[in-house]
Amino acid sequence: MGDSDDDDIPELSSHTLAALQEFYDEQQRRKTDPGENNKYNIGVIEENWQLSQFWYSEETALRLATEAIIAAGKGGRIACVSAPSVYQKLRELDGEDFSVCILEYDKRFAVYGEEFIYYDYNDPLNLPKKLTPHSFNIVIADPPYLSEECLRKTAETIKYLTQGKILLCTGAIMEKEAAELLGVKMCRFIPKHTRNLANEFRCYVNYDSGLNSEANYS
């Protein structure tokens, strides 16, 4: 290309370049530090499809969070295993009658401080000492992959953590494996995601749950 072609290319002023850089830096900061006001909003940390992340809709996250609070009871402890949008909704509710932690592979969720626990389902019992056996009133889990291996390994974590109650969210095609591994049954309630998934998604529990009431069928 000749010099005349270069002359036709507009040059941005130093002020504009600085403003663009500031905007870019702010976007990058938000991806890693959502800020106090909206840090628990679902979607503030974007889905990473390579990690098989698909966030629940606001309505579903609220329903599951409410179910977990009721099941845990006053002063109960709730563990969210690979279920970050339920964790976010629980923290958004900011109740004083329960405590919650998030076990998650994605280290972006480390912004949640001490409640974040790095978790890899491939090493299901590699957990910090503060997570003692059977120390949670309820465990809500959403294994990242629809495979027997993933569910089986995640089930090891669930059974280690829970005092008994389990709320599992996974595909309808995993119903048989879920029953065999965790003794859970499919609920009437049908969870929804912010994006439409190719596979039908369902909830499973092993206790008398409000997710089976007619009012919460969908």
Automatic annotation (TrEMBL):
Principal location listed in the UniProt entry: cytoplasm
GO biological process terms on file: methylation
UniProt keyword Ribonucleoprotein present: no
Location of the protein in the cell: Cytoplasm
Pfam families: N6-adenineMlase
A GO CC term assigned to this protein in UniProt: cytoplasm
Uppermost EC category: transferase
Family that this chain belongs to: Belongs to the class I-like SAM-binding methyltransferase superfamily. EFM5 family.
Protein name: EEF1A lysine methyltransferase 1
